[in-house]
Amino acid sequence: xxxxxxxxxVNDLEIGGRNLILNSNTWVGKALGSAKGVxxxxxxxxxxxxxxxxxxxxxxxxYFRFSDIVHELGIQTYSVxxxxxxxxxxxxxxxxxxxxxxxxxxxxxxRYYCTADNDxxxxxxxxxxxxxxxxxxxxxxxxxxPMLTKGNKSYADWTPAPEDVxxxxxxxxxxxxxxx
Length: 180
Known about the structure:
Layout: E1 7-10, E2 13-16, E3 31-36, E4 38-45, E5 48-55, E6 63-67, E7 74-86, E8 90-95, E9 98-104, E10 110-118, E11 128-132, E12 139-150, H1 162-179
Antiparallel strand pairs: 1-2, 3-6, 4-5, 5-12, 6-11, 7-10, 7-12, 8-9, 8-11
């Protein structure tokens, strides 16, 4: 029994096989923008690259966008780890205006998911939106390790894109060769 390198559908379960987001462990080159009522700051916390998201607690329908990451049609699952820093709030997520889902945030790192059948990849429809839920007052939370996979079931744990693994291997080889 062979499993497809990208995904395989069994009883309507399509299991994603790889992270489609390059540099997802560092957020390097990722466009976090189109924010309304939200500020964000890239930080390193406990050795991890994170984004601190702060919602002002006043703006109606706040959001921020993770742009230029959706490049394929079909069912996809986006996930991100998040942790409440202060206040009390939630996070609503969706891909290209589809697959809305609400999650209550906690003070522990947890992975949150949304799945959508994406039928658009032309600009501006190549984004994931995340909304702090208005009406809960001001609060802040961290996000880290975003992942986008084909299919409606992502791996439970974050994995880097295969291209990122090769870049890390090449960098280590170069470092060793420089020492020798």
